[in-house]
Structures are given as C-alpha cells and as structure tokens.
Specification:
By secondary structure, the protein is mainly beta. The protein folds into two domains: 94 residues, Lipocalin (Beta Barrel), CATH 2.40.128; 93 residues, Immunoglobulin-like, CATH 2.60.40. 2% of the residues lie in helices and 42% in strands. The protein has one helix and 16 strands. The protein has an eight-stranded antiparallel barrel with strand order 1-2-3-4-5-14-15-16. Strands 8, 9, 10, 11 and 12 form a five-stranded antiparallel beta sheet that branches. A hairpin with a 4-residue loop joins strand 2 and strand 3. The N terminus is likely disordered.
Length: 215
C-alpha cells in the first residue's frame, strides 16, 4: 500500500531528459530507520524528487532536482528554502507579569521547550528552557541578565546571543519567524546505491531507504 506521500499526484515537467527517464534510480523508496521514524523518497522520471520524514516532533520535507553520478544520485532542493530566523520582539505581559524570557511565533503564541543560556555581570550563567508562559528569574536571584542565547532544539534554530540594554530591563522577547521551517536544504546530497535501495549521506548522519517492490 502506498503512503499518501508516495501516492501524491506527480507534475510532469514539459521537457524530460532521456537520462532521467531511463535511470535505474527512478522509483519509490521507504525509510528503514526504526519503528518510531517514518519517511520516504520519490525519484521521479522527470528529473525531480520528493522527500519526507517524520520523527517524533520533527517533520521534514523537500523537493527539487536530482542527478545520477555513477552509482549515486545527488539531490538539490529547488527552490532553495528560506531558513527560520530569530529576532527581538516587544516586551509584554503574560498572566500579569513580564517574564525574563519568552519565545513566540509571529502570532504571539508562546513556544515552550526552547533552550536558553543567560549571562550576568557576575556569577555563573543560568541554563534552562521556556514554558508556555516563558521563564522568569527566581525570586532570590537579583542579578540582571546582560546577554541571552536561545536555541530551538527540534529544528536547531538559533541566533547569536542577544545583548540586553538598559531599556530591556534584563528581559527578552524572541520571535521565531518560521519561513520554510522543516524544508531540508539538500545541496548535492548524494545517495549511494545499495542492494535493496539507497543510503543517503547528509549532515547529521546516513539514512537508509528500501526500494518499494525490491523483495
């Protein structure tokens, strides 16, 4: 049975290279990386590919061009995705108080589970993560935050540490603009042909795919 991803309607390009039409790489592949991970790769005969992955809270996708190079097929995402960004936003109250740090989407919805490190003029930094109402300094710690680094752990979104000024009052609101979040920027990422499918070599580790109908 085909997954909805692999059964998607294919849009055929007006001019299809003969090498793509005849390539042995053309076909549908299923990710073979464990019971809690699902995904697929579709190498189309019009020189395009589609990719998807679901692993816990992480959802990835991509589409673009492919090129055969001997026993490998190399993927390039097209169009090139716009990565997510972090920017400083206006301070505001949550439940009647302004938290020390809060991370939100552009619509104002707070994002829990975002890691941070806070530095001060003296003493050890504080490491932690946000809640739905942000995070607030402990009542018994009167130090004023001077610099805060923020990292969203699921998609690895980060920015240089934010320097706080006197106008900030030691508080920070970070807005994450998702842009093309979850779209993988393959840049000639090559998959090596195996006996039963492909092994995709990419930053973060190899991914094994089994060709559907190979058994």
């Amino acid at each position: 049975m085909r997954t909805p991803f692999l059964a998607a309607v294919l849009i055929v390009a007006p001019a299809v290279p003969a090498a793509a039409q005849d390539s042995p790489f053309v076909g549908e592949y299923s990710l073979a990386e464990g019971p809690d991970v699902g995904g697929g790769l579709l190498i189309r005969n019009d020189g395009r590919f589609q990719y998807m992955l679901a692993a816990g809270a992480l959802d990835e996708r991509a589409e673009g061009r492919w090129e055969a190079r001997g026993d490998t097929v190399c993927l390039t995402t097209d169009p090139k995705p716009v990565p997510p960004t972090m920017e400083k936003g206006p301070l505001g109250e949550i439940d009647g108080a302004v938290p020390t740090i809060v991370v939100t989407w552009p619509n104002g919805r707070a994002i829990p589970g975002v890691d941070f490190t806070i530095w001060f003029d003296s003493g050890d930094p504080i490491d932690g993560y946000t809640q739905t109402d942000g995070w607030t300094m402990p009542d018994d710690d009167n130090r004023v935050p001077r610099r805060i680094a923020v990292r969203e752990p699921v998609y690895g979104i980060a920015a240089p540490p934010f320097e706080l000024t006197g106008a900030d009052g030691g508080k920070l609101h970070v807005i994450i603009r998702p842009n093309d979040i979850g779209v993988v920027d393959f840049d000639n990422a090559c998959a090596e042909k195996t006996e039963r499918g492909l092994t995709l070599h990419r930053i973060g580790g190899d991914m094994r795919f089994l060709r559907l109908g190979a058994d």
